[in-house]
Structures are given as structure tokens and as C-alpha cells.
Amino acid sequence: MWAGTLSGGVSRFKDGVFTTYTTENGLASNTVASITEAADGTMWFATPNGVSTLTSRAWHRYAIGDGLPSNDVNTVFEDSAQNMWIGTAAGLALFRRSRVQPRFQVPPPMRGSILGIAEDRSGSLWIATADHVLRINRERLVLGTLDEESLREYGPADGLLGVESVKRHRSVVADGRGRIWHLSDEALNERERDVLQHVAGGNRNRDIAE
Question: Which residue of 29, 82, 110, 182 is most buried, as measured by CB atoms within 10 A?
Fold first, then answer.
């Protein structure tokens, strides 16, 4: 069990004992916005000073110099194909084949602050930005071949009360039934079988848990 903090680094609870890691140990920042464990066991930590990874061997930091659009990282998410998606304050980055992918192109709605990323049962990515809710064909995004049919933006016409996402690690998630949940300023929204509906009032202090 891992827990990130606003100013005290990140702590791991194992065998009844907490172990805390900070910048003194190699963490990029003592503020941790998001934590993800990759399929290979690597731990990923989103911070306002880049992404930190922790393996059994060492810490490593990825930043603008490695290809990130911004050092201010909001969220990290590994999809079912083991691509690591990094949502920053200045757009989306893709980590695969042991590096941040160079010349990775994203459409304009994904060049702003990325607040949440999830994957549905079809393999499509759902991305929540500061003012967009998007469903994207993952394979076409990876290959750089997105077209109009590969990207769908959702809004009030689809049943959303608002598209302004709350800055939370789990602002958009997929549950075990394949439903997508999105937390906006206005409501908690649910999508199932291509139908979007709001199920509760929004709250900036709320997060989503399965």
C-alpha cells in the first residue's frame, strides 16, 4: 500500500510498517499527485517536478529534458498494452519501449492540463482535461493516425452537466463492470453502453474509488 502526500513525500505500508521516501531518497518532489504500479513492478509517482520511478534497483526521474511537455505532472496511467500515459499541465506524453516517445503528437484538446486517464473494455482511452472529456482510439493515438472517427468529445448534449474536471488522481476511472466514471465540478457522471448520465452532485473535495 502506497500513499502520496502534499508535502511529506510518499509512504509505503508493508508488513505493518510505514517507510517514507522523500527528495532525500531520490523522489522528484515531496508533493505526490498520483501513484501507479506498472505490470513489471515499477512504481510511478506523478509530481510537480517530473515523474519519479522506483524499481528494486534505483530511483529515476523523467522531466522536460526527457520529452515531457511539462514537469508539472498530474497523473500516470498504464493501459492494458503496458503503455504508460503521463498527464501533465501542458499535455499528454507516452512512455513505451523504455523512454518517453519523441515527436508524440496529440490533438489540441489534449495539449492542456490532463487530469485523469482511464481505459474501457474496448481498449479506448478516456481522458479528462481541465475543460474536455474525451474518448480516444488508443492504437491510433499511439501510431499518430488519429482521425475524426478516432476521437469523440462528450459534453452537455451527451448528458454531462459539466466538463470541467476536478483535479484529482481518480477524476476518471473504469470500474469492474466496464463503466466509466467522471468527476466534474457539477456532477459525478457515469457512462455505460454508450449512455452518459449524472448520478450525483459534484464536489471539488470528492474523489472516486471503486
Answer: 182
Runs of H (alpha helix) within 9-159: 138-143
Residue 140 — φ and ψ, nearest 5°? -70, -35
Strand partners, 116: 128
The predicted-structure confidence for 4-37, as pLDDT tens digits, reads as follows 999 999 999 999 999 999 999 999 999 999 999 9
Q: Among positive and negative, which fits the CA dihedral 38, 2, 48, 20?
A: negative
Which backbone phi and psi does 105 adopt, to 5 degrees? Answer: -105, 135
SS3 assignment, position 110: helix
* C-alpha–C-alpha distance, residues 42 and 168, integer Å: 22
- Tell me the C-alpha distance between 5 and 175, whole Å: 25
The one-letter code for the residue type at 130 is A
Query: CA 128, CA 184: separation in Å to the nearest integer?
Result: 9
Beta strands in the chain (DSSP E): 2-4, 10-14, 17-21, 34-37, 43-47, 50-54, 59-62, 73-78, 84-88, 91-96, 99-100, 114-119, 125-129, 133-136, 151-154, 172-174, 180-183, 187-192, 195-201
Tell me what pLDDT residue 175 has. Answer: 74
The owner of cell 499518430 is 144
